[in-house]
Design brief:
Elements (H helix, E strand, L loop, with lengths): L5 H5 L15 H13 L5 H10 L1 H4 L12 H10 L2 H15 L6 E9 L10 E8 L4 E8 L5 H11 L6 E4 L6 H9 L3 E6 L4 H16 L9 E8 L2 E10 L16 E11 L2 E11 L6 H12 L1 H11 L13 H18 L7 H10 L1 H12 L2
Parallel strand pairs: 1-4, 4-5
Antiparallel strand pairs: 1-2, 2-3, 5-9, 6-7, 7-8, 8-9
Length: 374
């Protein structure tokens, strides 16, 4: 498959502005915006500052016949872009870049807290994250966490995940979502809490007895892992079972193959806490070790993606919320995240790479050219 250039990707987004009043082509505005975010810009004013200070570098890629837009122009353009088109172009680009996604794809929601105002709920975005590649594959927004139930099937429809295992937290554990996943030729591991009360209670009771009487247990149905750091010690024990003929209502869950639990014990600061994470899954023949690794991959979305969005890209501090601006900026941040995460040539943290892009034009060239085939 021919990889798309950056210009081809960005020109796929329709410009809804009146042509007579357009000074700055849409793909130029988006290119400057994206490269500015890659280099650490967190406001429209900083995007303008970046553009003016890097104008000669930008001219290697863009005509810039009318120079660099001001902060108000960036703001007005971003808020007016059709969000659905931006999502679609992002997903199509990711299909181009990551042609064969394998392993676990975690689907989870995140809220941009400061996008809330008196008339509007804060932006809540559901993202699909490849644990294997460490990249965002796609995203869709919904008004609040409870609306993830309707957003997840729409997101799944956009993605090509055949052969993967989709993991979702308890909010997405719905029979229709399980059906949508299996219809796409994908397997699932779905977390269980009391929103599926009967199923949760039956599986909870089963594994409490399972834990008390493990004699004769198939070794493949039990696995342990441990981690330690920063004064915290955590042990995890996973049990699974595919003997579910007794489970009432199992026929409602498309492709249901087994059930499981991860018992977690955390010791920190002299205190001990215990938690149990119950789940159902659809891939037959999995070992407890494989399931435990898949579950841990899902939990990793918090510190591999959400933490970076908040602490490095400052998403939680952004007050942009007029029209489509909050959602469009989220897509641009995901784009910047993917570009920096895709590079393996430079050592250091995400913020180290951002700073290197700002200081070293050759490194920024490499990020842009390798990702978009200039």
């Amino acid at each position: 498959m021919k990889k798309l250039s950056l210009q081809e990707v960005l020109e796929g987004i329709e410009d809804t502005r009146r042509k007579r009043s357009v000074w700055y082509p849409l793909h130029e505005v988006l290119f400057i915006m994206l490269t500015a975010v890659i280099c650490g810009a967190t406001s429209y004013a900083k995007v303008e500052m970046f553009g003016k200070s890097k104008e000669q570098w930008l001219k290697k890629y863009l005509p810039l016949e009318n120079g660099i837009p001001d902060a108000c122009t960036f703001r007005n353009v971003i808020r007016s872009i059709d969000t659905q088109q931006l999502h679609t172009v992002f997903v199509e680009w990711m299909k181009n870049v990551a042609e064969q996604i394998i392993g676990v794809v975690a689907i989870d929601g995140k809220q941009a807290r400061r996008t809330k105002d008196a008339k509007k709920a804060p932006l809540h975005v559901v993202s699909a994250f490849s644990a294997e590649c460490g990249l965002v594959l796609g995203q869709l927004a919904c008004e609040e966490k409870s609306n993830e139930i309707t957003a997840i099937p729409k997101l799944l429809e956009m993605l090509e995940l055949k052969g993967c295992i989709v993991t979702i937290d308890a909010m997405g554990t719905q029979t229709e979502i399980a059906k949508k996943i299996t219809e796409k030729g994908v397997d699932y591991i779905l977390a269980l809490k009391e929103n599926q009360k009967r199923l949760y209670e039956e599986i909870k009771l089963y594994f409490e007895e399972y834990q008390r009487e493990p004699a004769g247990l198939d070794p493949a149905c039990r696995a342990e892992s441990h981690s330690q750091g920063h004064g915290r010690y955590e042990s995890r024990t996973c049990y699974i079972s595919e003997e579910i003929g007794w489970l009432e209502g199992r026929e409602k869950w498309s492709g249901l193959a087994g059930i499981g639990v991860v018992f977690c014990r955390v010791e920190q600061g002299g205190k001990v806490s215990n938690q149990a994470h119950y789940f159902i899954y659809s891939r037959k023949g999995m070992t407890a070790r494989q399931v435990l690794e898949a579950k841990r991959s899902h939990w990793g979305i918090e510190n591999r993606l959400h933490w970076v969005l908040d602490m490095q890209l400052r998403e939680d501090e952004s007050r942009a919320r007029a029209d489509n601006s909050a959602e469009n900026l989220n897509v641009i941040r995901h784009w910047a995240y993917n570009l920096l995460k895709s590079d393996s040539s430079a050592r250091g943290s995400f913020s180290d790479k951002q700073f290197k892009c700002l200081l070293d034009a050759s490194f920024l060239d490499k990020i842009v050219r390798s990702a978009f085939c200039f």
